[in-house]
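REVIEWER CHECKLIST
Item 1: Sequence provided? yes
Item 2: Single chain? yes
Item 3: Sequence as submitted:
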Amino acid sequence: MGPGSAAGWMPARYLVYFQYRGTDFNGVAAVRGAQRAVGVQDYLEEAAARLNSVLPVKFTISSRTDAGVHALSNAAHLDVQRRSGQPPFSPEVLAQALNTHLKHPAIRVLQAFRVPSDFHARYAATSRTYLYRLATGCSRPSQLPVFERNLCWALRADCLDVDAMQEAARHLLGTHDFSAFQSAGSPAATPVRTLRQVSVSPGPASTFALPQESSRLRFWSLEFESQSFLYRQVRRMTAVLVAVGLGALTPAQVKVILDSQDPLGKYQSHVAPAYGLFLKSVLYEGLEGLGPASWAL
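Item 4: Structure as written out by the authors:
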């Protein structure tokens, strides 16, 4: 069929990977109305409006993140219906156009791909991985390099018992009722989730630390992988694992907390700060090799 055929009127669906530094946003979801708060989606859809689609372009976000949470790679699908006689944008042109029209420097479109018209960015995801960054060796907030602020949780401790944290993390692996780690307001139909991976490991040294700071300032990475998570589940699990690392909890107590299914307990009700959390990757069956699935901080 030629470019002037009826096919030119059909909307094309794309999967778009994008990243953002969440400090300036009220989360990834769009904030509608005249409120001063703004979401990453607001800027993405504002940029997409410049594509001159027949119908307004709406982003369906794969993974919702809270205010202050960052994303190395989130994903969304969108439909673009060009004017009669115009072929669909190539994925490369679409990604370049969105980046050209984005008005916030803390958002970047990484890649775009054509997907079937029934593809759904949220429900088709087979894996989501979150990274949480910790820093030790900061007795005062002013001891953290300014370029690391709002990008990690600086603990007022010189060290962490990583072995104990790893032992505690093993209690969280597998399929469980994670009600104890779910915040109120979760839309999930069931609190049962399968945590496929959880790791606690030393993170790379900060390139922003001065030489005299490097001996005391250390970074740590917690990673969690599942098909999906409950509302604030990762930040609550992080808070409990940090409590283990600081000696306030034993690894065995983490299993007791998990089995309690009680989200209001003394330790599991704590929520790690949003600014240390990064959505690292979202994967899809058949698309694993296409998205930016591997990042290092």
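Item 5: Key structural point noted by reviewer: The beta strands are 12-20, 60-61, 70-80, 107-114, 125-136, 153-154, 174-177, 192-202, 218-226, 277-284.
Item 6: Recommendation: ____
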